[in-house]
Amino acid sequence: MRILITNDDGINAPGLKVLEAIAAEVAGEDGEIWVVAPAFEQSGVAHKISYTHPMMIAELGPRRFATEGSPADCVLAGLYDVMTDTKPDLVLSGVNRGNNAAENTLYSGTIGGAMEAALQGLPAIALSQYLGPLNFDEPLQFEAARAHGAATVRTLLERGHWDSADYRLFYNVNFPPLPADKVKGLRVGAQGYRRDASFGVEPHRSPSGRKFLWIKGGAQNIPTAPGTDAALNLDGYIAVTPMRADLTAHDRLDELKARLE
């Protein structure tokens, strides 16, 4: 199996090393792991692509490349520059430091990389590690993802639903904020929503008097509705959410047609 991996925390991020180990275990002895990751952190860029300017790509070692672009850029670089002889069998994005559950999903570069792979017609999985008081510090920070990542990916490959729709299905996986031995298992849940936890800005003045705004996130320990992604994570489960890039509100189409047409 040939696996392309990327992330949004950057080529030197510890979570990428965890993903490399996960991918190597899934691919097996005869497999190939190709890394195309951002040269520097790209958190919060969502599905951004560098459409209006070129990006540099550098080969750092065998099957290891860094680009000046976003995770979605990295996937495009992997498919159309690095791996032009044979496309990968699977694209993995992560392991992100911090959860990409609930509303975080919409901002996530980790999700953006997996989404681009799905739009290119490839099986794709995004993986993120929820952080909390029980695993915030090393060496426990990525322990749950490291211990359960390969089994989770294998389970999805073997028993998950994979289609060839125009907006192809991909998967968002979040590991709970726990040491590995405390993880209760795997559950499937919808994307949740944290009320009163949206992003905002915090103004600061520089020594020269100029005003700068820092983007500030909300509390991450707020559970979403029962059975949805963040709630499952906070209850100790690995949360798996099937996703598509199609943003249509299908539940409102018929009603809107009746009102407007």
UniProtKB/TrEMBL annotation:
<dbReference type="InterPro" id="IPR002828">
    <property type="entry name" value="SurE-like_Pase/nucleotidase"/>
</dbReference>
<dbReference type="GO" id="GO:0000166">
    <property type="term" value="F:nucleotide binding"/>
</dbReference>
<keyword id="KW-0378">Hydrolase</keyword>
<keyword id="KW-0547">Nucleotide-binding</keyword>
<dbReference type="GO" id="GO:0046872">
    <property type="term" value="F:metal ion binding"/>
</dbReference>
<feature type="binding site">
    <location>
        <position position="8"/>
    </location>
    <ligand>
        <name>a divalent metal cation</name>
    </ligand>
</feature>
<protein>
    <recommendedName>
        <fullName>5'-nucleotidase SurE</fullName>
        <ecNumber>3.1.3.5</ecNumber>
    </recommendedName>
</protein>
<feature type="domain" description="Survival protein SurE-like phosphatase/nucleotidase">
    <location>
        <begin position="3"/>
        <end position="195"/>
    </location>
</feature>
<keyword id="KW-0963">Cytoplasm</keyword>
<keyword id="KW-0479">Metal-binding</keyword>
<dbReference type="GO" id="GO:0004309">
    <property type="term" value="F:exopolyphosphatase activity"/>
</dbReference>
<dbReference type="InterPro" id="IPR036523">
    <property type="entry name" value="SurE-like_sf"/>
</dbReference>
<comment type="function">
    <text>Nucleotidase that shows phosphatase activity on nucleoside 5'-monophosphates.</text>
</comment>
<dbReference type="InterPro" id="IPR030048">
    <property type="entry name" value="SurE"/>
</dbReference>
<feature type="binding site">
    <location>
        <position position="43"/>
    </location>
    <ligand>
        <name>a divalent metal cation</name>
    </ligand>
</feature>
<dbReference type="GO" id="GO:0008254">
    <property type="term" value="F:3'-nucleotidase activity"/>
</dbReference>
<dbReference type="GO" id="GO:0005737">
    <property type="term" value="C:cytoplasm"/>
</dbReference>
<feature type="binding site">
    <location>
        <position position="9"/>
    </location>
    <ligand>
        <name>a divalent metal cation</name>
    </ligand>
</feature>
<dbReference type="Pfam" id="PF01975">
    <property type="entry name" value="SurE"/>
</dbReference>
<feature type="binding site">
    <location>
        <position position="96"/>
    </location>
    <ligand>
        <name>a divalent metal cation</name>
    </ligand>
</feature>
<dbReference type="GO" id="GO:0008253">
    <property type="term" value="F:5'-nucleotidase activity"/>
</dbReference>
<comment type="similarity">
    <text>Belongs to the SurE nucleotidase family.</text>
</comment>
